[in-house]
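#help-structures
NK: newbie question, is this the right format to request a structure? protein is DNA helicase
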Amino acid sequence: MEQTIWQREQAHLTTMSTQICHYIAELQQALQKQKGEIVEERTFASSEFNDVSGESAISFSQVLQSMALRERTYMNMSEELSKAELLHKTPYFGRITIENEDGQEEHLYIGLSTFRDRKTDDVAIFDWRAPISSLFYENMTGEAQYNIPNGDKLTVTIFGRRQYKVHYDELLQVLDADIYIGDEVLQQLLADTAKEKMKSIVATIQSDQNAVIRSSNKQNLLVLGPPGSGKTSVAMQRIAYLLYEYRKTLTARNILLISPSDLFNDYISNVLPELGEENVQHSTFYRLLQDVGLPYKAETHYDNIERLQHADEAAQHDYYVKTSHAFATTLQHAIDVLHVSDMPFYNIKVDGQLFASSKELTYLFYDKFAALDLDFRLKKIRTILQKRLTTRRTEELNRRVDELKSVNTYVGTDEELLAQAHKEVAKKYGKLAQMIETLRFVNSAKIYVSALQQLDAHVAERTASSLKRRHLHYEDIAPLLYIDATVKKLAQQNDIKHIVIDEIQDYSYLQWLAMAALYPKAHFTLLGDRNQLVHPLKKDALDHALLGQFTTVELTKSYRSTNDITNYMKAILPHAVTESLGVHGQQPTVHHWTPSSYVQNIVSLVQHAFTEGDSFVFICKDKRACEAFYAQVQPHLPQLVLITAEQKTYMKGLLVMPAYMAKGFEFTTVVLADAEAARYNNEADTTLLYTIVSRATRHLHIVTTNVLPAALAQIDASLFTKG
């Protein structure tokens, strides 16, 4: 009797799962043996080589090399075991049927990593990143091409695709898709993803996303797309692809991910380990200030949003000037001019006495070392100052030792007196030594303020006052980082080869220039959405400034929210281009409640709509509104958690958070808890509302005790339900 498709597929899965189990057992046994040999070799080395001089040194060196080789083998085998264990959990998720070079049909199974048949050594499962696996993600059947490592293209005929849901050796679902998208197929694979941390999307990558993921490491990409188009997911799969494709020259230590917050970094922290890769380095733009070591306290991005929501015209004007393309160009020109004039230096003093004058430093910079680049001139000056400091410290040390020895009473041995003198001299000259080492005899603040002066004297004056207090606004970080990276070049990190920046629409052109200067050997993948703006003040559009330097890719399909929520979202910003591939669900609900019934109705809504395991968030415009909401509601909902900027660990449950912190996340249910016209009353708030609404995957509630803001009041009544 002929087997059904299901039976054949289950039999194949059982065979593969059994082979993977045997391979895991072999690796575990080999690792155990290797571990014992490492322990034995270490024990031998420690007992045999008490003296490592003469001929023994040669033997000891050979043993060390052997130990190092054995330990590297052990680590590689451990990594292989981890990948095999991941593969065992989900052996594969897809299959393509092609015509091979012999004219025969061949089934190629696609999974998280490569696995070879234990008997024939043929590839039984192809890594999703392998060149031929790209065929699985192409939106077509029939003749297709894929790139091979030497750059050539191979042509094959694709007869069909099959997708699977498997769990260890259990076949849960088999889906045929001649064209790899079909709403039905995709939606069966895409569950409500808002219930947990972000997961990998290797089983559901679409052809437009695939093109981005597999782009060359040497290509600078600017990826723009609407909410739910998978930008962040694509970024994570791209990192995994780069680590696979360039594994001989690129490791996790060579890739940097710059994201909106530490909370968001935690949210995406499971993706690369799920794919069998180590997490890459990650940071935020704010934290770059600490990484570089500039001696300032600075406002965070979230603090900046809070301040400028309520700022006066002068503060707003300062922000506009500092984040403008015009100022970025002015600052670049001001730094170029430093080659010939106007490099500002401090007078260097110790205990009120002049150690090196600004006049002397200017002479060295523009006369003695004039032929060198800026940073080399400064490093030559540093060498001179360090030699002078060494002489000064030696003289001071000798003088202090003599003083201590001349004391009539006993104060210690000669060694103790020398140690005491060393301690005192180190304390006296420690800050100076650090200043010289980090080239802080350059007055970077003056370079910054002078460039501002060329555009607006009032902005320059207010900024100079702030810098004297050693306090930076968030918009001050980029200019000072850029100056440090281009003038001193001490903080440049040449080991970073690729940088991924999410939510690029939140960055100014000067922020981008600063990062490009800090990481001169890196290529970039930037991801963002022109319409998801949460800052109260607009910046000059960044994507226009980068068009000549970047390959721009526009994603238009959204997979996150129900069609009903996406339609409501598009009604807020009609010009936003979004093709919804979501499922149909409940319409958004608009609630008009009286102030006296507000809390009671909130509690009732939670009781009816919140299920343990869901992610359910109340979003208010700012921190102040969230705190007021929390104080009002939490006594009635003890499980409610207030998320603040200090939060570093992602959590699900019943949450309340400011709108600007919600961007980048997705939630099963979103409640806009303060939809008052008085709160969202200007043009910038329209994009904020758009962003808030786009966070919901399945359920959206709009709550107001007054009239709705214009952006919501204008929405066609057929797109929502009145609560």
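mod (FA): yep, format's fine, and the tokens are attached above. The two ends are 58 Å apart (CA to CA).
NK: thank you!
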